[in-house]
Structures are given as C-alpha cells and as structure tokens.
Design brief:
The chain has three helices and no strands. The chain is an all-alpha fold. It comes from Afifella marina DSM 2698.
Length: 87
C-alpha cells in the first residue's frame, strides 16, 4: 500500500475520531477537535500537497503555522469562556 493511501485512511480515521469527540463534555471537546484538525492539516500538507518532499525548513515552517493557528483558536476560546463567566 502506498503512503498516500495510508494518509487517506488516516484522514478518514481522524474524521471519525473528531465526530466521536463531539459528545465529550466540557472544555476537552474543543481541544480534542483542534488537535485532530491540526493532525489532519499536517497530513494533507505532507502527503497531498507534497510538502513532505520539501526542505526541512518549509516543513517546520508549515508545522509551526498549523500549531500557531490552532493555539490561537484555543486561546480565543479560553478568553471567550472567561468573559462569559465574568458576566
């Protein structure tokens, strides 16, 4: 089986995992969904956009970008929760 086929199966599994985590209560559900989204984004970048063939610098830059976007979304979620709790 080729690597791109394994990447496709991983994306399907991650999609099913994100659907399964939607029933988790509390602040853990958004964190899990963001982590799964980051894993899916990195998989798409590496296999389907062929960033895995690029230099280490490009791979690192795009990995850091994906993590930064997810961290920003998580931070906004936390800040919004604090504002909602404050009244």
């Amino acid at each position: 089986m080729r690597g791109i086929d394994l990447a496709w199966f991983a994306l399907v599994a991650l999609t099913l995992l994100s659907l399964g985590t939607s029933g988790v209560a509390g602040a853990l559900s958004p964190a899990l969904i963001l982590a799964v989204a980051a894993a899916k984004a990195i998989t798409v970048l590496r296999w389907f956009l062929e960033i895995g063939e690029a230099s280490r610098g490009w791979r690192l830059l795009l990995d850091v970008y994906v993590v930064a976007i997810c961290a920003t979304i998580a931070g906004i979620f936390v800040i919004a929760g604090q504002f909602a709790a404050a009244g």
